[in-house]
Design goal:
Layout: E1 2-7, H1 12-23, E2 28-34, H2 39-49, E3 53-56, H3 59-71, E4 78-81, H4 82-90, E5 97-100, H5 108-116, E6 121-123, H6 126-143, E7 147-149, H7 152-161, E8 169-176, H8 194-197, H9 207-215, H10 217-230, E9 237-241, E10 247-253, E11 258-262, H11 268-276, H12 306-317, H13 319-337, H14 345-355, H15 365-383
Parallel strand pairs: 1-2, 1-5, 2-3, 3-4, 5-6, 6-7, 8-9
Antiparallel strand pairs: 8-10, 10-11
The protein binds NADP nicotinamide-adenine-dinucleotide phosphate.
NADP nicotinamide-adenine-dinucleotide phosphate is lined by residues 8-14, 34-38, 57, 86, 101-103, 106, 124-127, 151, 203, 205-206, 209, 267.
Amino acid sequence: MKRLAILGSTGSIGQSTLSIVEQFPERYQVAALAAGRNVDEAFAQAVRWKPRILSLATPALAGELANRLHQAGITGIEVTHGTEGTIACSTLPEADFVVSAIVGVAGLEATHAAILAGKPVGLANKECMVAAGEILTAAARTRNVPILPIDSEHNAVHQCLRVGAHNEVKCIWLTASGGPFRQLPLDQFASITPEQALKHPTWVMGRRITIDSATMLNKGLEVIEACRLFDVTPAQVRVTIHPQSTVHSMVEYVDGSILAQISITDMRLPILYALAWPERPKSSLTFDLAGLRHLEFEEPDFQRFPCLRLAFEAAEKGGAHSIALNAADEVAVGAFLERRISFMGIPGTIEKVLAATPEVHPATIAEVLACDREARERARALLA
Ligand SMILES: NC(=O)c1ccc[n+]([C@@H]2O[C@H](COP(=O)([O-])OP(=O)(O)OC[C@H]3O[C@@H](n4cnc5c(N)ncnc54)[C@H](OP(=O)(O)O)[C@@H]3O)[C@@H](O)[C@H]2O)c1
């Protein structure tokens, strides 16, 4: 039996993780839940899963939840809040495995603390790896703690890497659906609305990652995530547009063999893989090979998707540039969703923030978070 701490339990990945727990009660139990502001969902999860501890973003929200639990006669759940609360969840002694699925860098300290506490981590939150990949992977190596990627592409790469040695890897091919604007004429990009950008052709996800998929910044973050997770250079990571989203990613070996992972487009499968690794439990998440007609792969268009170019540049520089890429994007995506900037204003903002970012390499999580704050301030100042 594995007892889970789920960080970001009210989000898309968090809820998919809970549906796996529901499906495999003999394998998994909920020990801790951490969420942000969705008190209604947190209350429903507390009632359903009775975690030992539940954390929300602020003291006020935690107080509201504690009151509701008290009124409902539910006892035995410690309700806490903020970064300390999330860390208390990720380091809870009785938790055996931590799912890191808080969006943005809000989950970084708790993910780091989980690794330091020797807990295996299922990592959905790519922003953590982008901002602090060197620190997290070094800590994991020292403590022999596995980091199992939940992001479907990296999960696919993890699976494909199981058959070869590190020095036999020529490159990693990350597939990208191309998002909803793959074929939109370039002159129409300026007038893309948040509603159009929030319609992803294949995946149902949180708002930021959906916009990041439309700009392909998401793929850019994944390039950096792949470099950190699998210890490869940016030149060894290739992106290919694959509109069917059937091949979740590939590894090309030096002898010319390419291994691909194919499965249903359902995040429950990579979550289950991460939770169960190194085992593979039987599941109903099967793929209908007979329904597969064709597989297309195209080169990404860097003019249409400048965020991807910016991400490769940030991957080369690493350190503060990777952090700034993610931070500036989060601010710019917020501004786009509030209709304060255009769709192409997102890469425009990131480019300016990156140009003003010094080439430094933070050595601690505190330094990472300081770089993150500086980049956000630069982005906000630009957008003010
Ligand atoms: N969804 C996918 O298919 C997918 C695929 C690959 C990777 N990912 C990655 O997985 C992560 C989560 O994505 P998602 O789609 O699940 O996002 P989401 O649906 O927006 O959920 C985000 C979660 O983070 C919580 N949260 C936000 N701010 C918080 C804070 N300050 N403290 C504690 N919790 C906080 C939210 O809580 P409230 O809702 O309660 O505010 C929610 O539980 C992201 O890093 C994303 O890039 C997602």
